[in-house]
Design brief:
single chain, four-stranded antiparallel β-sheet, globular, binds adenosine-5'-diphosphate, binds magnesium ion, ATP-binding, ATP hydrolysis activity, nucleotide-binding, SufC protein
Length: 251
Amino acid sequence: SSVLEIKDLHVSVETDQGAKEILKGVNLTIKQGETHAIMGPNGSGKSTLAYAIAGHPRYEITSGQLLLDGEDITELGPDERAQAGVFLAMQYPVEIPGVTNANFLRTAKTAIDGEAPAIRTWMGEVRDAMKNLRMDESFASRNVNEGFSGGEKKRNEILQLELLKPKFAVLDETDSGLDVDALKIVSEGVNRAKENSDLGVMLITHYTRILRYIKPDFVHVFVAGRIAEQGGPELADRLEAEGYDRFLVDA
Ligand code: ADP
Ligand code: MG
Ligand code: MG
C-alpha cells in the first residue's frame, strides 16, 4: 500500500504586497487506509495545504517535499498528481459552464486511467454512485456545479471521489454547510471509498460533527501554518470542549 509524505513543507502565495508565507514547515505522513483529521481555526492555512498537495499553481512550495511512495511529486503538475492517485475535494467547488457533469467525469476518468472507461459498465457505475449519493439523474446532464446548491456541490465532489478511485483524498471542509442528512450521505460516500479502495484520507474540518461518521485514526491541530499538536480521536473531543484558544495563545 502507498504512503504520502509531507516533509517540512513551506508554501507562499503571491499577494499585492509580494510573496506571503502561509505554510511554515508542515510534516505529516499518511498511509493508504488511514484517516487523518486536520482541525484548525479559519485562516490557519488548511486550504493552502490542500491546494499545495493538489498542485495549484498559485501556491508555491518554497521548500520541503511531497513524496508519494518515496517519489518526489513536488514539481509535478496537478494533472500528474491526479494520475499518481491524489484527489482534492475543494472547499469551494468550481463551476464549469458548458461542460456537463457526465462529460467531465468521463474525461477525468480517461485522463487519470490513461484509457477511456468501458462505456457500458461506466454508465452503470455513474448511475449507481449518483443513486448512493441521492443525486437525481438530471445532475449528470447539468453543467459541472453550475447553479448547484452548496450541499449539491459537496456531493458532486464525493461523486468524483467515488468514481475516480484515488489512493489519497484531501477533503477540504466537505462538511461545511451541510445539514445532518446531507452530512450522513456524504460521509457514507467517503466511507465507501475507504472500504472499496483502501483510501487514505486527509479530512480538513472546523467541526467535530463529521468525525462521528468518518472515524479518524489521527487528529492534527493546525494553527498558523503548521501542526501544533497531534493525537488520536480523543483530541477532537478535547477541541470540541475547549476550542482552539489554548493553541492560539501559543501561536
Ligand atoms: P484556512 O483554510 O485554514 O481557513 P487558508 O489556507 O484559506 O486558511 O488561508 C490562510 C491564509 O492565507 C489566510 O490569511 C488567507 O487570507 C491567506 N491566503 C490564502 N490564499 C491566498 C491568496 N490566494 N492570496 C492572498 N492570501 C491568501
Ligand atoms: Mg476557512
Ligand atoms: Mg479553508
